[in-house]
């Protein structure tokens, strides 16, 4: 007789918080960015567990929307995506880790070669009969990964390099794309145009989400949006695309606290009026940053309950946080509170926490019950 799986099913009632992930919105965001990219191919960055929403469901939904090329940070991420996108091209942005060239070929993923050391190892692997393909990363001003332009110039003098190393793409990365007026954008574009001339016939990629918005000149042959796909802001002062992630936490207790009392660790915030305080079953162990809490000298983030904003009160704990629901008389134990989503932009919460949307999304913990809307 078969035995049933004794593992309890994770539900919002057992976890205390929940994520609603709209895969339809993800697909529509990709389509909107693809329309902006014109004739350039639109890929998708799904690194960091697809910015926290789940690499496999994200890649599956994006594949169904028409995406054919994906970018990850690590080989393991590439193997995950390959499982649900068997025909896709997958590039590994963090380059070639030492000793694993053959594993890239076995998993049908392509390292983005970013240094001469990596290039030498990849060259030796190919010379020994390896058939894997790769991209070449040229640094145009980010000063993070990539061979220098001078190194690229020397490499380009070897006319058989592209075929011998199985190169299928040359790319770089914008440092300030989210600030359109920054002069480094134009300098990187000019350098990338020179790089394109060095490697005729190779497809070229420069633009992330923000780069798409900079215009046609930045698109080259392939664009690779990231944060914009997931509903995060990508241009200063411009609204994001559709909300993909809604994070919520449950009220587990409501208490009346007199004026003059403090709330939470360190007595960081003193109440200036008598308040109804709701305690939420979530905290920094769930990726809601401690720095988003409130003190007497610094207001914290807010949440949304029954269509009304409620400010955080005091410090955020590992598993708990407090909000002021004095002005929301309908608040009840068991209610769900929006931490961020369509009514509370993730960027606003990130600003209150003195960080960025990327960090909040990729920090989402494993204690959320996840519900996916749209086709899986």
TrEMBL record:
It catalyses: L-alanine = D-alanine. It is an enzyme of class 5 (isomerase). SUPFAM superfamilies: Alanine racemase C-terminal domain-like, PLP-binding barrel. The modification N6-(pyridoxal phosphate)lysine is found at residue 47. Its EC number is 5.1.1.1. Substrate binds at residues 144, 318. Its cofactor is pyridoxal 5'-phosphate. Pathway: Amino-acid biosynthesis; D-alanine biosynthesis; D-alanine from L-alanine: step 1/1. This is Alanine racemase. The lineage of its organism: Bacteria, Pseudomonadati, Pseudomonadota, Alphaproteobacteria, Hyphomicrobiales. The gene is alr.
